[in-house]
Design the sequence.
């Protein structure tokens, strides 16, 4: 009799999900791992017929954790579709707000969801941490609130912003707001530096023994070789760290293919050059990863000083490319420093205050537009087609969690193999450890379920028989 | 200690992340006075843990009901909850994902998954419901906190009242006003509009940020939308899209704004047009009236009521 293990739902993630682990007859070997998508909202369908100018305000609702990423990827797709030239100050305002958003999203993941895994806590959750170390949590929440305020000042609403409109932004900021942003950014730089130490330590514990290590290709946006969240070209490096592709967002479908597996609602993206070879990894496989670790592996350097120093230290310790899945956490921490420093830099720009140059009125509808950026969890693509009145006729979205989906499956499989082999008893503890593999990727379930919301959970099957749901 | 649980259906999770935007000391105070028994975003809580719970003092449910699983969860939530809250516009009215009600379920599945769907539709996947519905279609709701997501101040106020045991009578927890009441743009007495201006179009650069959007030909739902958000979009120079749901005393938010805009567009000679002709007239000006006027509330008015199915 084969065994199936189920974790339902996988917790401390953005949204809910389900993992199914298939064991062989003996119950000792892991045969397969399913990352399951179990619910749906169907954005790609119901966006058809909508006014393309309204898309940035509709698609942000794909995900409440990274609403800014969708809002901006969407507006970039529409800019592209209309051939708009977004004025410099508007670009700066978008990037400024977006850096605050990276902080808002990363800090939630790092401290509220992942940190409890790294501490010796009786109960691994933030409420317990609040009781044990209230001043730490208060400090975290307060600093994260800065990013909330900045997002609100720049974007109108912190979650589901409204300010990005095709051709620019609807508003600039006042001098008073600029000063506030500058002050908060300065504090966030210090806070980020402290944060790096915490997450570096956590990562280093796993350096020699990362149960979720695996070699893949990596994809990220870079601007002149440097990490950039908001704009640039898409670059792919292979398992050896060699640059193999560099392309504009519009060309993504020449490089990325997608397969649908019959057991999952999420699609499986792969690099066309290598092709889809199933859940295998290594140089010949088409599987690539995105997100903080990928960005460290793809970019050549950091634009800001502190982040560059931290980046060098990361490479020194972890090598480049770094294939340790647990290093996602350290990389994420370096990114909050970059985002804070970049925000500080942008907050000192004069032309973002009471600016008149924030909108390009020109532009003609062209049939198709693509926008891409680095969402907190990886490269995000919005691809729209419209009719002659600007009514949407086609939508394709590639979201980071979907791109990481094959790797997530592999990491969970590897983790499960180690943890469940030798007839170890399956208990909640073991399953929590499997979830740790998941959390490294910070999978965003709301996002990857823009068409089908998923609940991640883990199920252990013996063959087709479900033996355990935890 | 009072027990609370936070659960979701077809949600973007923005409503539950919004909770963490409350001031740190407020959160700390709140969480020191309640025991969180289920909140899978932040804790290792399994469905079984939830099922094992007896009465729960406060259950907040975000997201609408799209699958059988959501429905079952919601019904359990109602059984356990002393107070059940619809957190956000998706739970309250269906929200943006409710626009999917314009399409048949079969068409949605086929379009996205093609023929793969037959394989997918096995027992491993929760059965999608024909239409997305707000939670009030299935259970009695004690409080609604509208907004996408609800303003942080509203959430904070609600939680305070909950802790103090001073909640007002059941119903919508919010302001008895409209967004227009909170908007300080100049509102001319008499308005009529020649044509409707689109966001980001050529005409957009002529918009005066001090004057009412509607008066300038930009669709704004402020007049038909409940206040409480401090007109936050309008302050960012973007018109209201109605996320707080229908204003007090307005039955149909979308229909009301549609007829309002139609009447602003109509010349004297057109004033006795039939409903259909009016809709046609509006459609000439507006690319996607349904997606604009019913952005957050489609299931509330359409495919969202129990009677229709029973
Ligand atoms: S109401 Fe808005 S924020 Fe809340 S779940 Fe729905 S889309 Fe997300
Ligand atoms: S219609 Fe909009 S812009 Fe005009 S007063 Fe009302 S809320 Fe303000
Ligand atoms: S202005 Fe309108 S769309 Fe914006 S938050 Fe208020 S109610 Fe929602």
Sequence:
């Amino acid at each position: 009799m084969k065994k199936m293990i189920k974790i339902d739902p996988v917790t401390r993630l953005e949204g809910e999900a389900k993992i199914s682990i298939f064991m062989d007859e003996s119950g000792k070997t892991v045969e397969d791992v399913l990352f399951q998508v179990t619910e749906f909202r169907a954005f790609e369908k119901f966006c058809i017929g909508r006014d393309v100018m309204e898309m940035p305000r509709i698609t942000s609702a794909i995900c409440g954790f990274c609403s800014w990423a969708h809002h901006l990827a969407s507006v970039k797709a529409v800019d592209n579709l209309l051939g708009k030239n977004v004025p410099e100050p508007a670009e700066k305002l978008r990037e400024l707000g977006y850096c605050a958003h990276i902080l808002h999203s990363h800090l939630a993941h790092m401290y509220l969801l992942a940190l409890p895994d790294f501490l010796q806590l009786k109960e691994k959750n933030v409420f317990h941490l609040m009781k044990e170390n209230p001043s730490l949590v208060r400090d975290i929440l307060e600093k994260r609130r800065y990013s909330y305020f900045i997002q609100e000042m720049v974007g109108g609403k912190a979650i589901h912003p409204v300010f990005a409109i095709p051709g620019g932004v609807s508003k600039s900021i006042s001098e008073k707001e600029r000063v506030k942003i500058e002050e908060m950014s300065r504090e966030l730089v210090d806070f980020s530096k402290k944060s790096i130490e915490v997450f570096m330590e956590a990562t280093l514990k796993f350096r020699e023994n990362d149960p979720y290590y695996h070699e893949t290709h990596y994809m990220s946006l870079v601007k002149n070789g440097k990490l950039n969240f908001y704009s640039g070209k898409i670059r792919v490096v292979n398992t050896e760290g060699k640059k193999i592709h560099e392309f504009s967002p519009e060309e993504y479908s020449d490089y990325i293919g997608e397969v649908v597996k019959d057991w999952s609602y999420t699609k499986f993206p792969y690099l066309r050059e290598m092709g889809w070879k199933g859940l295998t990894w290594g140089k010949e496989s088409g599987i690539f990863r995105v997100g903080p670790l990928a960005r460290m592996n793809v970019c050549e350097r950091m634009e800001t000083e502190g982040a560059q120093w931290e980046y060098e230290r990361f490479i020194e310790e972890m090598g480049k490319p770094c294939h340790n899945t647990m290093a996602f956490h350290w990389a994420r921490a370096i990114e909050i420093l970059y985002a804070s420093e970049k925000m500080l830099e942008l907050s000192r720009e004069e032309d973002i205050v009471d600016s008149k140059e924030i909108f390009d009125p020109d532009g003609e509808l062209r049939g198709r537009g693509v926008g891409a950026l680095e969402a907190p969890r990886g490269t995000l693509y919005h691809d729209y087609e419209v009719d002659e009145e600007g009514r949407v006729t086609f939508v394709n979205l590639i979201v980071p969690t979907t791109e990481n989906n094959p790797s997530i499956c592999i990491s969970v499989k590897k983790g499960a193999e180690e943890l469940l082999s030798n007839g170890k008893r399956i208990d909640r503890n073991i399953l929590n450890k499997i979830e740790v593999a998941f959390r490294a990727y910070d999978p965003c379930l709301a996002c990857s379920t823009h068409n089908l919301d998923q609940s991640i959970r883990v199920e252990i099957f013996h063959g087709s028989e479900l033996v355990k749901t935890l | 200690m009072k027990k609370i649980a936070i659960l979701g259906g077809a949600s973007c999770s923005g409503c539950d992340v919004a909770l963490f935007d409350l001031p740190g000391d407020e959160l700390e105070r709140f969480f020191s006075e309640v025991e969180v028994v289920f909140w899978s975003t932040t804790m290792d809580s399994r469905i079984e843990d939830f099922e094992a719970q007896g009465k729960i003092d406060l259950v907040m449910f975000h997201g609408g009901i799209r699958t059988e699983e959501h429905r079952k969860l919601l019904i359990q939530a109602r059984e356990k909850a002393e107070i059940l809250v619809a957190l956000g516009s998706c739970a309250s009215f269906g929200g943006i994902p409710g626009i999917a009600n314009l399409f048949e379920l079969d068409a949605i599945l086929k379009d996205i998954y093609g023929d793969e769907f037959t394989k997918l539709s096995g027992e491993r996947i929760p059965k999608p419901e024909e239409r997305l519905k707000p939670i009030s279609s299935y259970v009695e709701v004690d409080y609604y906190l509208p907004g996408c997501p609800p303003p942080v101040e509203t959430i904070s106020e609600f939680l305070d009242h909950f802790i103090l045991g001073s909640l007002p009578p059941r119903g919508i927890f919010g302001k008895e006003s409209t967004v227009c009441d909170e908007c300080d743009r100049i509102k001319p007495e008499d308005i009529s509009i020649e044509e409707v201006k689109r966001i980001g179009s050529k005409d957009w650069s002529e918009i005066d940020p001090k004057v009412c959007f509607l008066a300038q030909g930009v669709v704004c739902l402020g007049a038909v939308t409940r206040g409480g958000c401090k007109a936050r979009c309008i302050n960012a120079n973007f018109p209201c899209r109605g996320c707080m749901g229908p204003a007090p005393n307005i039955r149909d938010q979308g229909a009301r704004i549609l007829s309002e805009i139609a009447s602003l567009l109509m010349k004297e000679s057109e004033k006795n047009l039939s409903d259909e002709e009016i809709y046609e007239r509006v459609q000439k000006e507006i690319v996607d009236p349904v997606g604009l006027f019913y952005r957050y509330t489609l299931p509330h008015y359409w495919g969202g009521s129990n009677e229709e199915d029973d």
Notes: Residues A 61, 64; B 11-12, 14-15, 62-63, 88-90, 95-96, 148-149 surround iron/sulfur cluster (ligand 1) (CB under 6 Å).
